[in-house]
Amino acid sequence: MRFIFKTSYTQDIDLAKHSGHVWAYSALVLLMCAAPWLVEEYWLAQITFVLIYGIVGLGLMVLAGFTGLFSIGHAAFMGVGAYVAAVLSAHGVAFPVVILVAAGLSALVGAVVGLPALRVKGIYLGIATLSFGFIVEEGLARWESVTGGNAGMHVKAMTLWDWKVDSAEKFYAVCLVLAVICTLIVLNILRSPTGRAFVAIRDSEISAQSMGIHLAYHKTLSFMFSAALAGVGGALYAYKMQFISPDQFGILQSVDLLLMIVVGGLGSVHGAFFGSIFLITMPQLITLGKDWLPAAIGQAPGLQGVVYGLVLIAFVMFEPLGLYGRWLKVRTWFELFPFYRKGMFKRQKSFQKSDRLK
Amino acid sequence: MNDTLLSAHDLTVRFGGVLAVNRVSFEVKQGEVFTLIGPNGAGKTTVFNLISRIYTPTTGHLEFLGQRLSDLPAHSVAAMGIARTFQNIELFEHATVLQNLLIGRHVHNRSGFWQHMLFTPGVRQAEQATRHKVEEVIDFLDLQHYRDTLVAGLPYGVRKVVELARALCTEPKLLLLDEPSSGLNVEETADMAFWIQDIQKDLGITVLMVEHDMSLVSKVSDRVLAMNQGEVLAMGTPAQVQSDPAVVEAYLGGGFDATALRRQAGAPA
After folding, report:
1. Alpha-carbon distance A135 to A130, whole Å?
2. Burial of A32 (0-12, 13-18, 19+ CB in 10 A)
3. Which of A133, A190, A305, B249 has its C-alpha lying 20 to 30 A from A184's C-alpha?
4. Nearest-angstrom CA–CA distance, B248 and B129
5. pLDDT at B267 over 80
């Protein structure tokens, strides 16, 4: 067991709360750096996708998990980022510039979508963002002079002046660096006044406002930041896929993104990456499972949808904190061994919140 | 010398056909504890919501330190130096007590989003200063024990104190307390009375509160305003207001007392 003895306020401010964090995350970074030599090319590609979806997930996590605004059209921001990458890379623009422009443009679009968020809440915001997703998908399909319409677009490999990111290993390295940068930025925001304002808005708008938090500013900010990360992820996605078409950024992708953060664990940064691992490995597991199952089930169409649905329902019912919540329990079990008690994480029902002032 | 902190001029609020507050005027002086009392539905909380700009008055206006409050957007009220608590507790439930109190310091934040993204040394320093201020409030209200507990897991009485602490963290000039003793037991109410007195005397903060517990009211308040059905009934010291016939009538109802009732029923008085 570990007892943290606090002697200064910086211990609460620092990202690493104790030496264990330093060791664990250093080891993780080393392992990720060594991955190209450790795993086959196929799995390296999968890890790359985990990182890309992780970045998008971080963005959605800030918006949904920390600010409490649900977006059911987040794939649209990915789409904006992806098409920026496709168009700019065709002109041979250096990739850091492409990534920045993708983030910037997505953020601008995010600001526009954020406007209804100032007026509508909950399920209505969901509907607003859902229809926004359709508008963008349709827009990408119809604006043929730039996007090539439904025929899709080829995306050229990343370049940085003379340096060309032409191998899977190099692309993986770029994704890894970007994922680390994005994670650090998100962590910084969450430990600063802006992050606290987000959480305040999530938990009680009326009270956040009375504490002097400018609701419109922070909601728009959250939308823009979230969209920017989705844009970065979208640009990387485009580079990785090398071919994009509007239907890749439709409602199914948006639902996948939401599924990802809910299964990963709403309100945790780990959750974005756990969820992304889930999203990428699940199809593989289902393919493996097909051979085990009787043909009537295993070969039935739509098996993936059913499994996703069941997993989501199971998580909502039995583990609302998602994979991250499960991870916390497992870790506590080891830390306290053999003193872990079954009821440790049981939340008592409390009926103290009466209807809020709306 | 003009020592008026907050003044209300002819406040009227109409929700459709309901006249929630009708031509209410009062002045809160610097450094006093001013209490609003009245039966349910008297419009006390509506007055609070007017001050914190959740509602806008239909007519009339509020002035705080010479500035009209109705010209300000709702989030600027805290920056002006007005902090409040809520009747039903509006804490950030999925955050720790410490995080809740840190949010209370939000109005004193001087750094922007880009600095937060990079967590510059300036932000780090400001965070330490913020924490220092928060610890002062924690010491003042004896909350050390609960610092890292999630609010969702705290008993009601402690939540009330945490909400008071969060309001104090903004370093307000005027503190609005909406029923500080509701839901508290006798000991907790006694503690609350001491804290309100300390807030007034030691921190020099003016307190405006809505309260039902008359023993608490008479213990801490300098002046009391009684309301009923959106109108002012009486204003004065707690003793004056309590003995005011209009106030007695509002609370007990009818123009007759218990003896008159018995006489009516023909029973011996």
Report:
1. 9
2. middle
3. A133
4. 50
5. no
Q: Are the beta carbons of A59 and A228 closer than 8 angstroms?
A: yes
- Given this model, what pLDDT does residue B28 score? 92
Rounded to whole angstroms, how far apart are CA atoms B91 and B155?
Answer: 13
Give the list of residues 6+ apart from residue B90 with CB closer than 8 angstroms, or none: A204, A206, A207, A210, A356, A357, B163
Q: What is the DSSP string of A190-218?
A: HTSHHHHHHHHHHH-HHHHHHTT--HHHH
Domain count within chain A: 1
pTM of the model: 0.89
Contact A212 B102 (CB under 8 A): no
Q: Are B239 and B211 in contact (CB under 8 A)?
A: no
CB contacts of A201 in chain B (<8 Å) are: none
Q: Does residue A190 lie within any of the structural domains?
A: yes
Q: Is residue A16 part of a domain?
A: no
Is A228 contained in some domain?
yes
pLDDT tens track for A187-211: 999 999 999 999 999 988 889 999 9
Q: Are B170 and B83 in contact (CB under 8 A)?
A: yes
- Does any CB of chain B come closer than 8 Å to the CB of residue A4? no
Cα–Cα–Cα angle for A191, A195, A199, nearest 5°?
A: 120
Chain A residues with beta carbon closer than 8 angstroms to that of B54: 206, 209-210, 357
Residues of A in contact with B118 (CB under 8 A): 185, 188
User: What mean pLDDT value characterizes chain B?
Assistant: 88
Domains, chain B:
1-81+172-269 (3.40.50.300), 93-170 (no CATH)
Residue type, B39: P
d(CA B65, CA B42): 27
Task: Tell me what ipTM this predicted complex has.
Answer: 0.86
A19 in a structural domain: no
Q: What is the DSSP letter of B32?
A: -
Q: Can you tell me the distance from the alpha carbon of B158 to that of B146, in angstroms, rounded to the nearest whole number?
A: 9
User: B149-197: per-residue pLDDT in tens?
Assistant: 888 888 888 999 999 999 999 999 999 999 998 888 999 999 999 999 9
Residue A53 buriedness (CB in 10 A; 0-12 / 13-18 / 19+): buried
Domain carrying residue A104: 36-344
